[in-house]
Hints:
By secondary structure, this protein is α/β, with parallel strands linked by helices.
Amino acid sequence: MSNAKSCTLIYDGSPLEGPADQPLIDFLASHAIDLPHVCYHRSLGPLQTCDACWVEVDGDLIRGCTLKSHDGLTVKSDGQRARMAREEGMDRMLAKHELYCTLCENNTGDCTLHNTMADMNIPIQRYQFTRKPYEKDHSGAFYTYDPDQCILCGRCVEACQNVQVNETLSIDFTAEHPRVLWDGGERIDGSSCVQCGHCVTVCPCNALMEKTMQPDAGPFTSMPQSLKRPLIDIVKTVEKTIGAPPITGVSNMDMYWRQPEIKKTKTVCTYCGVGCSFEMWTRDRHILKVQPVVEAPVNGISTCIKGKFAWDFVNSPKRLTTPLIREQGRFREASWDEALSLVARRLLEIRDEHGPDTIGFIGSSKASNEEAYLTQKIARLIIGTNSVDNSSRYCQNPATKGLFRTVGYGGDAGTIADIEQAELVILVGSNLAENHPVIAAKVKAAKKLRGQKLLVLDPRKNEMAERADLFIRPKTSTDMVWASALARYILDNGLADREFLESQVNQVEEYRKSLEPFTLEFAEEVTRIPKAQLIEAAEMIGQAESVCLLWAMGITQHSHGADTSTALSNLLLVSGNYGKPGTGGYPMRGHNNVQGASDFGCLKNMYPGYEKVSDEKTRAKWAQAWGVEPERLSLEVGSDNFQMVQDADTHKIRAMFIIGEETAFADANTTNVHKGFEELEFMVVQDIFVSRTAEFADVILPACPSVEKEGTFTNTERRIQRFYPAMPPLGDSRPDWQILTELAARMGHDWGYAHPSQIMDEVAGIADIFAGVNYERLEGWKSQCWPVRADGTDTPLLYTDGFHTDDGKAVLFPLEWKEPDEAQDSEYDLMLDNGRMLEHFQGTNQTGRSPAIDDLVPNWFVEVSPELATERGIEDGSWVKVTSRRGSVELRAVVTDRVAGTTLFMPIHQGKPGINHLTGEHHDPVVNTPAYKETAVRIELMPQGRGEPPLPPGNFRHGERTPNEGVPVEVKWYRDDYKTPPAHEQHPERF
């Protein structure tokens, strides 16, 4: 007898048991039964366009993709009517698609059309292929569209409209010759396409295909078109006499010939903190494509331009492949033995002569968790200093501090699934669609398909602001005021969660008293947000059953970013939005492992697992685990990377070891940073390129990117995932964990790690929050969200049974309003906002190796509001000089309403000398994060006048989206000339 979770259905006379309410195609697949289908995809659902899955239910023909399993369902697929209907559906698809599979780059095993056609054993192509009146579109940066191969299944449209929700693609089934359209037109280039690759990933044939797959994806695919075309025509002529099966047999053999040459490796993206995982398809060192899979725990089939396409850097001829040593002002090649011996000797000499705290370590937010652990282990155990840090100092430490103050853990309160199911999502200082596009896609889908509400507060009108139910533009650096004012309004107007506050939160009355200055009138005066908007926002929050609040560098990179982050967490506590599904605070992590670098100990005040270095019991625990006396480990909080660079100038720091970080480009006030580096006695940089930072080094050690090694990353939602090597290290480069292990041995500590799993096992045996983490539990697509108990049970949603504080209660943390450290005046009358762009990452050291990305965004620029442009005589493309109190840069202007009034915006990853030639060393005194967003400037027109607009015509920002509900299959059905299978069609190429 079945229950609500399982059922028994009858399929072709046989009973099958399995989950209830599961799509029939998936239900059958779990029993090794393949119901033919092409348009159906597990992430897209039933599109009903291919007509290849017909079955009979109670004597009626029904598309099998629309059925879900339930008790008593009786399905017949082997009857003549259903079989004829399926074959008619396939015949119609083949009328729109020229079969030349053996010569096709996509015949690699995952061409759904080819595989389905072969499995159905189609005897002959009933309808002659009819060429469409369109050319193949090569205009896209990373993929092509061939209308002659398009079967009009609509997978790409559904993915674009309702998964990615970029809303670029459509199909007009009323046209005489329907095809996929970009913004209603026929070219990829110049449309709103953001090159996320969703459409290419789900295409069931070769109509949409990665350029990296063309033309050498198979043994016969690279032949010139002058030879390929006649060969196709000959085969098609022969097929009419011998039928399709022999030709299909050859293509099947070709497909299997290719398999041993293609390696499919699960990896985790090396870019932002979302933590997308996917398969990387390679032939030797050639990256054929990145292929997302439904099983990926974070992203499923989703990717962005960088994760899908920006991997040219892996095989860049500028990769570091051998150690370099500086001699007489120039670098020369060296052996590993010489380079590591020099590094070990000099670090020990400086430690012994000047003391351990004169050496600073910066761990990589792009290297693995295991490599972060070894970085801090060398610093603490061998050198004896806690001066170790990572790039979170530049972005997310203020957010972490705000969470430590209020709820106890320095990480996202839940997972992306919680963000998806929230009734209200609040985005503050986060350009989510460009900085964390896969999470943005989830939010856009939740809003479009399920009615989720969206509140956006940002000085800049980004895509998410355009989509918001309420968009508010606060004055820069005033977010702490409106957050506190909203909290006061919620408390004063009966919208607070009283039961939650009374039972789970401390300092309620003290906090409430601290809110006295934060009236709506005061907030309106300081933030310039109209009082009505403040009330509307407060009501949205107070009335929502569940709220997730996401914030990023627009909040943290201010002189009081820790206080503002605290205020945001306070606001969530007041409204009861922690500890239940669909709630919590989510500081968006910028780099792929910036969360993990901090988690695993690259912090000046924390051992791995956020255990305080200043606590004697904690020190004793780590000393015992590492086999030394406690006195060997320092109790003194070390210097962070911001302090290290400053202290280099005074010789308080004499040596630095920097791994995979572009500190010379990313730290504030470039002039002073470079001056500090020049004062160092000894500097080691471990990286995959000779970065701007590496140019100051005495020794450069060539490391490997993630696709050449094994390890784990931790994403923004605290999710630990394994990645695997897709190819061997390039040249004589080495994985960071091997370099650090060998260096430690040369410094007298032979740890003997032979595999990164041993490093993880060591961490799990010491740090409480990782107690149950191991590589077996992370095998394949499995993952764990810390904290993880010893039995392997992880914690996707935090605070369900109390907060991470001494008494298990959260803390409402009182705050006072403090003015920003830098503001406009009569000389510097504008404020310079800044941030990442979708196409770029980390000083372009990786994305800048991709010619296609350079073509999309070839120039650095500054955004100027229309009103300011009119006032100052600035036009699109005008050369301008932007000057701060520290320096000047010259670049071209983009006039856009993305910015307003006297606020400018500049991308942070482009340009020489870069934006930090303008930023200053004023910083958050609590966490030492530079106030990058508090940069007052002036702007002036340059004599060279106007140049070409910085954003080329093909950039997606010029496109006009065409939102729709997805594939309009009903339009096709309602056409007078459409006939339901198994009836034959007069014009099958149209459907």
